[in-house]
Amino acid sequence: MSLTHFMIGKAGVSFSPEAVRTDYERSDQEDELLGEAAAFVVAQGQASVSAIQRHFRVGYNRAARLADELEMRNIISANNGSKPRQVLVSKEKLSERLGEPD
Q1: pTM as predicted
Q2: 81 phi, psi to nearest 5 deg
């Protein structure tokens, strides 16, 4: 028996994946900067967390959540190490991806 299993049994802790969801996954609110961040990365032609941080003067966590949301909406590509992410949409398709009326 591993130490982890021993301690779980000793403390009577039950584990559920729902309990470890991040605040970001639980949040139903969209970041107010999402539209501006999307327009910014499309205009720049590439995206990075650090560029979002500098441009909007926000911390790393918020900039990373914005980048994750842009990735989930297929506006930017997935993380590729230290390289900037590619922008996957044109200015014309941006409002469609954000769910905004034209």
Answers
A1: 0.69
A2: 65, -130
